């Protein structure tokens, strides 16, 4: 079953536009969890334009599902995740100030060999690691050599070309990339610009997906549909079952 991790960055973006704590990131996460999502994703950036470090600590204190923290592995980011110890850390090559992740790592030039030490450090702390990659086979093999547990396939090009012949070619590349990754022992995640229209095709074609993280489209749909209904709609689009929420017994019973 493909797990759905909801990225709540956009909730924080809306809150920060006005100040205060409305909408509340933690309450939004609770609503997503109650609706059946399997995880929560955040991507704290150096400029704190959406998720702040305090949000990360607040979410870590209450989450009952997997916590995935994305980011560029600078000193501050690594200090944060080592303190929080989330389920998974997804490393992205975003330079400071970039609007959104728009490319995968280049692991074959030698300039990213230092990631091996980062992955080892995170793994030693019991944190599952994932590298944000495109579909190139050399990059995927190098991710395995560096010690990553998973890769996250960058689905932006697929989403942009969805419904066109080019989109079919990109989808085939993702299918082959996922097959290679699984064959050499890597788990496979996916994310970026996935939505209710393009997810069903992707989920059927790319076998063995472990997880997708979705934020912008899901939160945008929630403006019209409501957050609970939207999470359930994305689970249905993935062909996934909602996570069962354990009911807590009242004290004294």
Description:
- By secondary structure, this protein is an alpha/beta fold.
- It contains eleven helices and eight strands.
- 45% of the residues lie in helices and 15% in strands.
- Mean of the pLDDT scores? 94
What best-fitting shape do the alpha-carbon axes yield? globular
Low-confidence stretches: 248-253
Spatial strand sequence of the major β-sheet: 1-2-3-4-5-6-7-8
- Write down the secondary-structure element order: EHHEHEHEHEHEHHEHEHH
Tell me about the biggest sheet? 8 strands, parallel, barrel
Give the strand tally: 8
Percent range of helical residues: 40-55%
Structure classification = alpha/beta
The proportion of residues in beta strands is: 15-25%
Radius of gyration: 18 Å
Write the layout of secondary structure elements.
Elements: E1 3-7, H1 9-18, H2 25-34, E2 39-42, H3 53-62, E3 66-71, H4 75-84, E4 88-91, H5 115-124, E5 128-133, H6 137-146, E6 150-154, H7 156-160, H8 165-183, E7 187-191, H9 199-205, E8 211-214, H10 216-225, H11 227-238
Parallel strand pairs: 1-2, 1-8, 2-3, 3-4, 4-5, 5-6, 6-7, 7-8
Helix pairs in contact: 10-11
